[in-house]
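User: Here's a chain of 210 residues. Predict its fold as tokens.
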Amino acid sequence: MARYTDAVCRLCRRVGDKLMLKGDRCYTSKCALERRSVPPGYNATAKRRTRKSERGLQLLEKQKARYTYGLLERQFWKFFAEAERLPGVTGENLLILLERRLDNVVYRLGFASSRAQARQVVRHGHILVNGRRADIPSYLVKPGDVIAWRESSKNTEYYKMVAQTAGDVVIPTWLSLDKQKLIGKVVSLPVAEDIQAKFDVKSIVEYYSR
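Assistant: Prediction complete.
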């Protein structure tokens, strides 16, 4: 499966905003955006456009969303196409579909410090959904789904670390977590108003609608 393999900190610098792609590191002075806020390849002596066109701003918002959830363009487009087919507002549908991804849910439950780390946890087969092994990060959860750890994975040092920090995690209202057993549950579908997105979904819809 194709995936982005370059330094993810370059993506934050490219869009000029913290996308929290490195987890806890993003809160420290090691954050690349804190150390060097200019875009990759920036040349101070070269003449650059300082004002983006409307199309450019729409593209920027689309890239923010894509980078945030760790998707390639074709993957992101598929989610948008599905959001268009669903009844309701396309932008809200898109945001809800992205939040329902299993790797995002693992991240939201505090089982990983970033979505990239959550994707790795899922791919390595550490996660169960309704008692069955689930190793597809793009799997869309639904209300009533139970997300838990494989029994064998509970012996790993990583699981022990997660168990120690579980009490500090703020869980979204559409999810619940048993912090003693580290078992999560999808209480309901996420609501767009409750998702603190760092991008404008309306601009994304306008970008693809042209």
